[in-house]
């Protein structure tokens, strides 16, 4: 770029400010045009983004209703707080159950005789063998752990299915061994290979024997299974969590006694899932109205008013609302209107009468399920909606193509800005060259004029003398 630091020095006419003003005047119309185009393009991208977000929000509730499990909801009520009930909705069915718990499951506990000290009194050496639940584990006791606390630590480190601790009774110390799990199958048997040569006496390591024949340990808590009756049927389990007796139901017992458990279908919970779909659909209509609506009073349309992509999306979604699922043409439930979902023609929004839905779900549960979810290879309305929305949001969809096209427009606008900068740089250089030449010429003319004036001034006195 030519220097303009002395521009105008010869004439006082052509200045750097004048060049800046001429360049700015040339630039401004194009800048304004590009700014307006960019603002509109960005507004359209934002509008498509809002539309995409609203469609994505619609997908989740439709997915929840697209499987038969989504049309199931159950509630479990126990008459006794000590009997907890949890359910798996995909497996459970309605039912009433009378529960009588007569015995809780217990983990077995054993206690040794008393020792004078837990850290210094020798208890013998050899090998303790624990058999719990059919699994045997050996624990070696030698000179490094030949104390009550040493035995307890060795047992805990062995992973034998039991835990051990030392209890201070006030008159001595006792080793306490407890099964990690409840139930008869987890009862503990302890055999000993005692280094003193006698494996069953009450001396040395054999004082910890409890093998079903010799009981040198005291059983302080007996191993027990949980015993209960469900509708008069006797049940036993190794734990107080009773599963797989009633399909999809888990009972958690904390006390003995009787309880009544009622498993009922929760139509309200299913209706709330449908309500979520209705709410998301209506939210989508609001977005469409905001970005593509037309105000007849003002004659103004929104940024995407008349957009064919949005019209096609609306048309496809509305078409689903009146779909009759194949095989349901003669059913009591055929379309969404039959389960309380209707369309307000003035707004395009859905209205949902939950009382109608709950009544139809109670009366025709299979047909309501078939209306929404896929059954026997036949797609329900929700399943079709999920597929439609997936296509609308796809990377090669019309919506994606429109957004990609607008992003390309922004790239071209930036290219045009870059080209404008180059043109303005070129214009500035040309103006500087032209103004510099004109300035030089004016400076020469000014110099010549000054010389002529000086010469005329010098001739004036001589002319006056001659006269």
UniProtKB/TrEMBL annotation:
GO biological process, one term: bacterial-type flagellum-dependent cell motility
Annotated keywords: Bacterial flagellum, Cell projection, Cilium, Coiled coil, Flagellum, Secreted
Domain of life where this protein originates: Bacteria
Residues of the Flagellar hook-associated protein 2 N-terminal domain: 11-108
GO cellular component, one term: bacterial-type flagellum hook
Residue intervals of the Flagellar hook-associated protein 2 C-terminal domain: 223-447
Locations listed in the record: Secreted; Bacterial flagellum
Pfam families assigned: Flagellin_IN, FliD_C, FliD_N
Complexes and interactors: Homopentamer.
PANTHER family named in the record: FLAGELLAR CAP/ASSEMBLY PROTEIN FLID, FLAGELLAR HOOK-ASSOCIATED PROTEIN 2
Function: Required for morphogenesis and for the elongation of the flagellar filament by facilitating polymerization of the flagellin monomers at the tip of growing filament. Forms a capping structure, which prevents flagellin subunits (transported through the central channel of the flagellum) from leaking out without polymerization at the distal end.
Family per similarity comment: Belongs to the FliD family.
Descriptive protein name: Flagellar hook-associated protein 2
UniProt lineage: Bacteria, Pseudomonadati, Pseudomonadota, Gammaproteobacteria, Pseudomonadales
């Amino acid at each position: 770029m030519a220097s303009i630091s002395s521009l105008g020095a010869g004439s006082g006419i052509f200045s750097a400010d004048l060049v800046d003003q001429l360049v700015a005047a040339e630039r401004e119309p194009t800048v304004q045009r590009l700014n307006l185009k960019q603002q509109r393009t960005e507004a359209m991208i934002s509008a498509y983004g809002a539309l995409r977000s609203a469609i994505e929000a619609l997908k989740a509730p439709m997915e929840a209703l697209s499987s038969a499990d989504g049309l199931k909801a159950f509630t479990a009520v126990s008459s006794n707080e000590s009997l907890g009930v949890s359910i798996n909705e995909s497996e459970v069915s309605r039912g009433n159950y009378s529960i009588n718990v007569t015995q809780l499951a217990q983990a077995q506990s054993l206690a040794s005789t008393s020792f004078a000290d837990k850290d210094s009194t020798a208890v013998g050496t050899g090998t303790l063998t624990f058999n719990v639940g059919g699994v045997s584990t050996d624990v070696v006791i030698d000179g490094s752990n030949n104390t009550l606390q040493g035995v307890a630590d060795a047992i805990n480190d062995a992973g034998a299915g039991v835990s051990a601790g030392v209890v201070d009774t006030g008159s001595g110390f006792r080793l306490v061994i407890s099964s990690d799990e409840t139930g008869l199958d987890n009862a503990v048997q302890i055999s000993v290979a005692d280094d003193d040569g006698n494996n069953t006496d009450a001396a040395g390591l054999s004082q910890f024997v409890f093998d079903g024949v010799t009981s040198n340990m005291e059983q302080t808590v007996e191993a027990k299974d949980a015993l209960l009756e469900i509708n008069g049927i006797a049940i036993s389990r190794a734990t107080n969590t009773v599963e797989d007796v009633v399909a999809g139901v888990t009972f958690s017992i904390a006390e003995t006694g009787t309880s009544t458990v009622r498993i009922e279908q929760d139509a309200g919970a299913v209706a709330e899932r449908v309500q979520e779909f209705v709410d998301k659909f209506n939210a989508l209509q609001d977005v469409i109205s905001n970005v593509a609506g037309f105000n007849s009073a003002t004659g103004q349309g929104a940024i995407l008013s008349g957009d064919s992509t949005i019209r096609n999306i609306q048309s496809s979604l509305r078409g689903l609302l009146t779909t009759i699922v194949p095989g349901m043409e003669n059913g009591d439930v055929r379309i969404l209107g039959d389960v309380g979902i209707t369309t307000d023609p003035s707004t395009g929004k859905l209205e949902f009468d939950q009382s109608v839905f709950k009544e139809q779900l109670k009366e025709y549960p299979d047909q309501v399920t078939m209306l929404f979810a896929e059954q026997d290879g036949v797609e329900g309305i929700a399943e079709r909606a999920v597929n439609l929305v997936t296509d609308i949001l796809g990377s090669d969809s019309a919506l994606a193509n429109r957004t990609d096209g607008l992003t390309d427009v922004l790239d071209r606008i930036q290219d045009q800005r870059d080209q404008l900068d180059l043109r303005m740089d070129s214009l500035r250089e040309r103006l500087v060259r032209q103004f510099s030449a004109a300035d030089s010429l004016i400076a020469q003319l000014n110099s010549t004029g000054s010389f002529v004036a000086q010469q005329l001034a010098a001739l004036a006195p001589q002319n006056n003398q001659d006269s």
